[in-house]
Specification:
Strand order of the largest sheet: 6-7-8-3-9-10
Number of helices: 8
Largest sheet: 6 strands, mixed
Shape: globular
Mean pLDDT: 89
Helix content: 25-40%
Order of helices and strands: EEEHEEHEHHHEHEHEEH
CATH class of the domain at 74-160: Alpha Beta
Distance between the termini: 30 Å
Strand content: 25-35%
Radius of gyration: 18 Å
CATH architecture of the domain at 74-160: 3-Layer(aba) Sandwich
Structural class: alpha/beta
Low-confidence stretches: 246-252
Length: 252
């Protein structure tokens, strides 16, 4: 689905250039759950911004289903973001003036889907994520966990092929974090949603099938979970994080 080919990203002027990404390459298969990890300044958020088309690469290519996103016009790029990419943020970014149902269906409405199609699709996704009973409520009337599920439903309701999550558990307590990770795992396992998540947290990363580690803008290491349990995978992730900087606390 996604191919990142030798991408580089530079910031600054000729006399003061910072190389945020240095020939980074990897693929993401359809239905995969991939996590990007690294210490602060490793390039992980820059990488996610480039993939999400929030930022552009200085060199290299990012292909979605074989299409180079850098070659898209402004209108095509906006359409690409609406129809192909879903986003889950730390603070959910729900609109308090809209009901849960309206928040979830917003992307479909922006794509000019008819009212019946929007309603049917919203209810289908809401049922899978267990939030049909709150569709008529406003975000400020529901719990944090229900807001999480609403944000996830919104991210995939229009049939988006790739879900991008940037530190989605960063502002949550341990119980809420676990609930969100279980939701994301369910979306990946049962709904075949392809997920690319950036996190600094080894516990969150242990839910993925593969973890890619960045250091100084380069791919440092990669771990595949395979058939191993999440606890074993978690400790393997900690070992790599320790090797990344010599101090796991710098990354956790």
């Amino acid at each position: 689905m996604l191919q990142v080919q030798n991408i580089e990203k530079y910031y600054g002027s000729k006399n003061n250039v910072t190389k945020a990404l240095n020939r980074v390459s990897f693929d993401v298969a359809d239905g995969e759950f991939l996590v990007i990890m690294g210490a602060s300044g490793s390039g992980k958020t820059t990488l996610l911004n480039c993939i999400s088309t929030i930022d552009t690469v200085s060199a290299g290519k990012i292909l979605m289903d074989g299409e180079d996103v850098a070659g898209l016009s402004e209108d095509a790029l906006a359409k690409f973001r609406r129809e192909r990419l879903g986003f889950v943020f730390q603070d959910f970014n729900l609109l308090d003036t809209l009901t849960v149902e309206e928040n979830i269906g917003l992307a479909l409405s922006l794509n000019h889907a008819d009212a019946q199609t929007v309603q049917n699709r919203v209810r289908e996704v809401a049922e899978k994520l267990g939030i049909t009973e709150i569709l008529s409520k406003f975000p400020y009337q529901v719990s944090g966990g229900q807001k999480q599920r609403t944000a996830c439903a919104r991210a995939i309701v229009a049939g988006q092929s790739l879900l991008l999550a940037d530190e989605p558990t960063g502002a949550l307590d341990s119980k809420a974090s676990k609930n969100l990770l279980e939701i994301i795992s369910t979306m990946n396992r049962d709904m075949r949603t392809t997920i690319l998540m950036v996190t600094h947290d080894a516990y969150s990363a242990s839910y993925a099938g593969r973890v890619l580690f960045l250091k100084d803008g380069r791919v440092f290491n990669e771990l595949l979970r395979g058939d191993r349990g999440r606890s074993v995978f978690y400790h393997e992730i900690l070992d790599v994080l320790a090797a990344l900087g010599g101090d796991v606390s710098d990354v956790l």
